[in-house]
Structure formats: structure tokens, C-alpha cells
Amino acid sequence: MGFNQLPFLWTAIFPIIVLLYYFFRKKYSKQSVSSTLFWKEVMKETKASPYLKHLQRNALFYLQILAMVLLVIALLQPFWKTKALAGEQIVFIVDTSATMEVSLSDTTLFDQHKKDMLVLIEQLAGKPLTIITTGNQPTVIVRQEKNYNLIKNEIEKLEVAYEFENMSKSLDFAQSFFQDKATSVYIFTDQLDRQTLPLQYENVTWNVNGLKTDVQNISIKRFGANKTTNGLSALIQLENQSNVEQTTELLLANEQTEVVKEKVIIPPNEIITLSFNEMEESGLLKASIQVNDQYSLDNSMTVFLQDQLSTVYVDSSIHSLVRTAFQSMDIEVSSVPAEQIGLLTEEGITVTNQFGLIDRLDRPSLFIGRNDEVAKEVNGVVETTEHELFSFANLEDIYVSSVYPPIEGYETIATVGEEPFIQESPRGDIVVLSDIQMTDWALHPSFPLFMWSVKEQLSAGNTYLGTFSPNERKPLSLGSSTNEWEIYTTDDSYEYSIENGGVFIAPKKPGLYVLHSNAVEKNFAVALSQSEKEITKGASYKIAGQQVDAKENYQPYSLVPYLLIILLLLFVIEWEVQRRRGFTN
After folding, report:
1. What are the structural domains, with CATH classification, of the chain?
2. Is 8 helix (H, G, I), strand (E, B) or coil?
3. For a disulfide at 84, which of 53, 199, 437, 555, Cβ 3.0-4.6 Å?
């Protein structure tokens, strides 16, 4: 507590004068007693309640002294100091990715962050607040808002969006709100490296609230299945992200029954790969692990199995290791002379290097190398994007000596240094911009796994749209007689509708979904990205800007309005006391 106008302390002389006046005034009053018989009764009554009698006689004195003391205090302008957030403005960056669903005793990390935000807004002290949620497209929830109730309601409505947080994009977006003002930025996430923060702003203080405890998590890292001549084959990877050995029960089930039930032991901080063959054919296959960990979103995965093209037709001019890779995955392969590859009429997947045939092939195909261009030497590490073709195939360790020129308008999904290495056409063709003999890829286990993934993607029928990340936006030509498609879960729970020809927005929760339009149905899956299956212990820390006061910030709240209300009440009471005694007295 403090005072803004201490010079007005001299006004304390007025209540002192009033007090002195009452000291020198007459201290008794005449009282007529009609008879000596009543004298004793009067004295008894006086002695029985002396304080009440005293208060009745001196009520005006106490009221006036109290009023004058409060007036003096009001002139001094007292205030009460409350803790406030530092800076001229506040920015919240809220991570809404799937990892925010990790359990912490009786709550989740996301709910704990919401509680922390509600505590912090109590200390805004009238400063403007901006709330930004992370994602592929960062969203502003409130902008420069000072209304406490509105801010509180928006925080309580925040939900997990399950998509990759893309924190770097959110940080870039938040910088547009700084505007050379002293700013306190609060980041609510699980883990954030200090080097990620843009520390070039001297007027910005960074406050990171992370996951401060170790988490026990067992994850289904990857899961895939396909139909073979002997039934279903499945490949699954399990990861133990804890420091102790974990035992879990792995279940594989189709629409009706369990087809695999196996006890699995996973060493600490390791990934194990399991394969299962000759399983009963079905339309879908669900993998789940029975484990009591702190993150359940990665404990199950489901794949949709459809009628697929079973034969791969390989151009005879392609290196024989390509055929061997497909055959090692139990895929039927047929070698076709180079001059006949464009004349094929059989249904199947075509693998060639004759890029000029791309417009003559009816279906998306795999191109390995290009016979219409000259390769150039490259040097660098292979880097891949978040694409389903690399779910099982890790290309980081392979060596590539040369690549062909990229195709304009195609999406690059893997690079060597700065040069495109693998591209995908708008209709789905996969183009590897290098001959196999220009790399050591065939010597790595990722080579047949990549070929298997390519076969899975290219053999997809028109009833399966593919796998999407949560909230992924993608233009799709769905081809319906009506102009609207409805999205349902596999349990026939309605989600929402989309217009044909518009931008398709995938649901936010992982799982299998069905698109309905009259009698037409198309299936698709929503799956977490690999980064959202890794729970890492983080830390909470603060980095203060050089031009921002690092000391605790306090906001003064004036007590004068409350004193004036009390004074008004005292004046009313004093008037009533005077009225009852009579103003002439």
C-alpha cells in the first residue's frame, strides 16, 4: 500500500482541532428527576449500560472524527499494489497440437496451460492481450483485447486441434504484433528449444511454459498392411519412449474379430519392427496396444484395405535391383521390354524411366530416372518431407551422386542438398530423379520399404482418398452427381459437410472416415504426424529483453472510490442522528 499525495498530510490538523474542541466542551448534561425515589433507578440504568449512554451522547463526535480522518486519507490518494505482467502488451502463443493431450496426474497438459492462462489474465492490469493458436495456419483468437470476461471466455473455449504445431510459423506470425512496444510473450507448449526463439528483439521478454515432468509413453510408430496371394500382410513398428523396459499386449483386429494377440517386450528408448503374414482378408485392420501410459493417442492405428492392383510392370531398361526390391516384399513383378511399356493394356503399376510416356499412361506410375534429360552431380544429405511414402523408409543415410532436372509444377517431397530428388505429380505419379546406379540406395533396407509404400499408394482404388493429417486442406475432385458430400466416422457419427469442387478439410481427430453422397462412398484416414507421436520433456524458462524491466511489475489500484462511498454513508448516518436529536439542539 502507498500514497500518491503525501503533501496533503497537513490536513490532519482539522480532525485534531475537532478533537481538541470536544476536550474543552461541557462534559455533562442536566437531567431532571421527578422524585428522589427514581434517582436510584436512573443511576442503575446509567451504570448498567455506560458505553451505550456514552455512545448516544457522543455519536456525532465519533461520526465527525471518522469522516474527517477518512477525508484526510482520501486527499492522500492511497492505493493498493497488485502484481501485473511486465510490458506494454501481452501475447499468448498456445500450442494446440496432439501432444498437448498428454496426461499429468488428474489433468492434461493443455488443461493445465489453460489454468495457467486464467491466472495470468488476472494480472493484465488493463494491458492489451493477443492470443495466437499454433498450426499450419496460426489463428488469432483475440487481438489487443482488454475485456477480461471476453478473454476468459475465449480461453475456456480453446481446444486441441491435433495438427503439427509448426511453432516457427507461429513465432514469425506473432512478430507482426510487437510494433516496437515492450512486449511479454508467453508460450504454452510441451518443449521448445531456446534457439528457436527470435531473440533479436530487445523490447520482448519470452516466457516459455513447457512440460516439466518425465512422461511414460509407448507408441505405435508406423503401421501398414496389404493384400497378398496368401492373405493379409502387416508391418508394425513400436517405440518405447521411456527409460525402462516395457511389456505390452499387441492386438490386430478386423471388422469382426481379433486376428493377432501377442505379448511384446520393448527395450528402453528403442524401436522394434514386427511383421505378420497370412492373416484373414478384411476391409480394414486395426492395431492397438494395451498399455497404461500417459499418452493414448498413439496407442492405436487403423488402415483401410481395398482391392489393389497386384502386378507391377517394370521396364526392362530399369536396373534389376528394382525388380528384386518388389519381389522381396512378396509383390508380383513382370518385366516388360522398353519398347512395349507404353503399349500395356493390363491393369497394374508401371515402373519406367521413359518420362515421355506420362501422358499416355492411364494410371499414376513410378518413374525412376529420366531418359529425356542429362543428370548433374550433386552433393548433400537427403531430406524428406512429412509424406506417407517415408513412413517406413528413412532416406537420411543414402548417398546420391547425380540427379536429373526437376519437373516444373510437381511437388518435391525429398531433396539432396538444395536439389529435388523425389517429386509427386498432381495426379499422383512418383518421380525419382536419379537412376538406381547413381546411388547406394539399393544397399539400404529403406529401398524395398519405399517400393512397398509406392506400390500401396499407386494401387489405391477410387474408393479410397488416402491418408490426411488433422485439419489438412486439399483440393479434391470427388465427382458426384450432387454438389455436397457428408463426412461420417466409421460409427456413422456425422461430422460435417463439404461442397464438391471446394477445398477439402480433413477432420481434426485421428481415425477412419467415410464420405457419403447419395449411394457413393469414399473412405479416407486421418493420422497423426510422426512428430506428434514423440513426447519429450521440456522446461519452463524466461528470457528478458534488454529494454524490458526484469523486475516484478506492479499495478496501483486507487482506494479513493471506496473511501468516498464510506464517507457518503457516514454523512447519511450523521444527518439521521442530527435529525433525531433535533437540529435546534
Report:
1. 2-81+559-581 (no CATH), 87-212+538-551 (3.40.50.410), 218-307 (2.60.40.10), 311-458 (3.40.50.880), 464-526 (no CATH)
2. helix
3. 555
